[in-house]
Automatic annotation (TrEMBL), chains A, B:
Keywords: DNA-binding, Transcription, Transcription regulation. PROSITE patterns: HTH_GNTR. Gene3D superfamilies: GntR ligand-binding domain-like, Winged helix-like DNA-binding domain superfamily/Winged helix DNA-binding domain. Pfam families: FCD, GntR. The lineage of its organism: Bacteria, Bacillati, Actinomycetota, Actinomycetes, Pseudonocardiales. CDD domains: WHTH_GntR. SUPFAM superfamilies: GntR ligand-binding domain-like, Winged helix' DNA-binding domain. This is DNA-binding GntR family transcriptional regulator. Residues 15-82 form the HTH gntR-type domain. One of its GO terms (molecular function) is DNA-binding transcription factor activity. The keyword Nucleotide-binding does not apply. The keyword Thylakoid does not apply.
DNA sequence: CGATTACATATTGCATGTAATTTTATCGCC
DNA sequence: GGCGATAAAATTACATGCAATATGTAATCG
């Protein structure tokens, strides 16, 4: 294999090679240049990035730990494949974590947080109106990012970020990402109002309902997808 | 330093050295032979375990990912010190995760799960009656372990296990572990009944209340501790 | 005498060597 | 042509080498 899947341009030899290898590989996975099932070869990446195998090995270990890859003894690591059932259990987790984030964010909410969310919502509104799916995804992630930052619980943030990465991988594997944009927008509106309202318990429930609905729509989409495949098979 | 803090007896040279080093070091931390603040020296551990530095380095990285140690560039890793505020935020997380575990366990609960919990409760009851704090801690952990196993969500289990490790470290750093044994026992009773009752939402709330009360008692204990110290200073 | 600098020592971070194991390629055979 | 055994190549897991950096200590200076 002579074609490079990793972008070595951002690597500067000399300091923090593990971090840099980690970012490059992670980016390759999340952008699907490394699809689920792809092998993460230590010597291959070391060649591509023009660094030694040690930092690459460490970077891959980190990726594994984040749940983006899994390895078996003496056979190396591959990008994880996340099925629908696993995706559901990820959303089970996400539901309670986003709920907690909303609750804590409501406790801590000052005007800047609310402003950030309002700004996000406006941009999100425009994106949805013009049917820009990519930007919708981006702003949706940013919305939840604001809330978890406002929550001020580092472990919570890490866990949510980790789930987000796995969700991104699963999305390609199983279900399409379009659809439900309007609903998401409306639910974000409700959540912003709840946070402004100042009752942590209410905000938590609104956030949880939001994620629950995402999970359900995911389930439906997967069923539809399945049905679609069945139909094609029947042809 | 010639005294060994790690127990190398369980290491067999030849396969899976990273896992073995990881377990030994983790055990040393959780058993407090390596107190918070202790340095985790790669060459020192390699000497003690009589293996090379590579697997030791990897094992320590894993310990870091788990939140049991933290490292700064070119200065190596030290066992984390977890203050009261951080412990509180750990319990915030734990609250919603144990709630989720109880909810999922209730969905999945068969007679064996309930039986396990009942058996645990009996043993726990005996331990509390005889004032055995160590055994109380052990059975308390086992109780929650049964529930999260029954929940059948791997990521959830990992997250809870990780928090449990950090809680163990924090307990020494900040607050005593005795106290609240009777309350814990009573609340476990309520939770078992809720799981048997079969309503997932109820079980979730009971579990969350249980953890919330633990967090609050923790807070109180810390305050009392603080007060105690102040009084001694006044003498 | 305390603070600062220079040096010695130890450790981290990365590079590379090597045996064991797995994967891939080659071959003979049906 | 397809299939199984064998050999070659590549990869993993671990060991070790080495330069850069940090820590501790002694010498120097104000």
């Amino acid at each position: 294999m002579t074609q490079h899947t990793l972008d070595a341009s951002s690597i500067t030899r000399g300091d923090g090679l593990v971090d840099k290898a980690y970012k490059v590989i992670r980016d390759a996975i999340l952008s699907r240049r490394l699809a689920p099932g792809s092998r993460l070869s230590v010597p291959e990446f070391a060649r591509q990035l023009d660094i030694s195998r040690s930092p690459v090995r460490e970077a891959i270990a980190r990726i594994e730990y984040e749940g983006l890859a899994e390895s078996t003894s003496h056979r190396g690591a591959v990008v994880v494949q996340i099925g629908l059932d696993e995706l559901i259990s990820i959303y089970d987790l996400r539901e309670v974590l986003e709920g907690l984030a909303a609750r804590l964010a409501t406790r801590a909410a000052d005007t800047t947080v609310i402003d950030d969310l309002e700004q996000n919502w406006q941009a999100h509104h425009d994106a949805v109106e013009s049917g820009d799916v990519e930007r919708h995804m981006e702003l949706d992630a940013a919305f939840h990012g604001h809330i978890r930052d406002a929550a001020g619980n580092l472990r919570l943030s890490d866990n949510l970020r980790q789930l987000q990465g796995q969700i991104r991988i699963a999305m390609t594997t199983t279900v399409a990402r379009r659809g439900g944009m309007d609903a998401a927008l409306a639910e974000h509106r409700t959540l912003i109002d709840a946070i402004r309202g100042g009752d942590p318990a209410v905000a938590e429930n609104v956030a949880r309902d939001h994620i629950t609905r995402l999970r359900e729509s995911l389930h439906d989409a997967a069923l539809a997808d399945h049905h679609h495949i069945d139909e094609r098979h029947e042809t």
